[in-house]
Amino acid sequence: MKTSAALLVLLLCPLAAYSQTLTTSSEYGLPIVKTKTEINQTGTLAKFDSNLGELTGATLIIYGAADFSVQATNNSPQSQTARIGSTTSLFITSSETALNNLIQSENESIDLAYRTPLTTFASGETINFGPITNEEQFSYDLAPILASLQSNGAGSFTINVESMSGLSIVGGGGNLSASQFTIAGAGAKIVYSYVLEPSSALLCGIAGLGLIVRRRR
User: Could you give the CA distance from residue 190 to residue 103 in angstroms, rounded to a whole number?
Assistant: First the structure.
């Protein structure tokens, strides 16, 4: 009975090694630090170290956040009703060519926005709105480009985020002037999934074999 149990260990141990999925991750810019737009931020993420095992999956998450403040003045002798929109788009690129191509084809930017309520301005009135915070994130499944994301030992790549901000006025008959103040920032995280290399399973099997031999003696 003891020998049979040890034999079962020998057979199952390599399978257990293969079935155990592990994860490792790398990040930068978290929590997000916001600065006055326009921003141009670059951070570094680690590639997967192939010495850890066999890479089976990866997910990249880009985080973006912005605070919007808007000031508008009615320059008309009559009251005017309008809505003002403030936007900041965070455009994402990477130094890793395959990753950059994936980002550009799937989702090249995180779009953040704030719209004021529909507001009536008295003649000569100035109204301030905000600050209002908007946060968004986008995840990329990196399964198609796993080969480009790993190295034998230390390796890294960069993520760059640049902003473009704008202001729009709907209504007001062209009599409103407006300005915006925006601060924004970004961060990123990559999560790798992997399994142990076959050598790990082999070592486990050898240990099981040794157990059988010992019990037979």
Answer: 14
